[in-house]
Design brief:
The chain is mostly helical and 227 residues long. The chain has a domain at 1-145. 53% of the residues lie in helices and 8% in strands. The protein has 9 helices and 5 strands; from the N terminus they run H-H-H-H-E-H-E-H-H-H-E-E-H-E. The chain has helices at 2-20, 24-27, 34-45, 53-73, 82-107, 116-119, 122-137, 153-157, 191-203, and strands spanning 77-78, 113-114, 163-168, 171-176, 224-225. It has a 3-stranded antiparallel sheet with strand order 1-5-2. Strand 3 (163-168) and strand 4 form a beta hairpin. Helix 3 (34-45) packs antiparallel against helix 5 and helix 7 (122-137) packs across helix 9 (191-203).
Length: 227
Amino acid sequence: MINKLMDSIDQVRALRVRHMSRYWKATAVIPASLFPYWQRTAQFEFKGIPQDAFFFARATEGLLTFFDCVRTSGKRCLLPSIAADSVWHAWARMDARSLDAFCIQHFGRTIAHVDQAEMGPDMENALATCIATARQLRGGDPSAPIVPRLFALDGSLFMPGGYGYRLVQGQVGCRRLDQHGRPEGALFYPVGMTAAVDLTRRDGSSCGAVAGCGGDGCDGGGGCGGD
């Protein structure tokens, strides 16, 4: 009885996320089979990941925000959320063609998943582009000293092994989350976050030759999308 009640509450919370999302039209056409597939398989790739509908809904919204960052910036972006990356991986495994068709329909292009190992120096630019564009999508100044919702996603969902971003005295810091999704270790302050702000103010660009989040085991995010 209690389990059924908790499941019902979880479903209601997930439905509310979808209805309140700016991407509600897009979420309505995501394959219904994706959630159960993700629920069955994500745990083998992402140890300790929650498997409830609310987590999936929030992670999916984060992924769509990231796709929007790629579309809006027209450049490579680094996905700063392992939770969102788990949905991307599951969808690509389950039905890559439907994922490509979805991206073309709602974001005007296919968005290739590029592993960090293949990015090289581009990872530094991609993280800076993503945070500036995510701020802009929320109606804010790309250079504003805030942590966008996308960057706060793993921390708010307690994603095991995810990335925790926070603002300290106007600077964006990053650190890994432990197996329980809680911050561990010292914050690392990516030079790229500050450099991206300066470049945005100077020439209107959301990206430049800047450093991403690195050091102390914090490399800043999951996969990369874009050209």
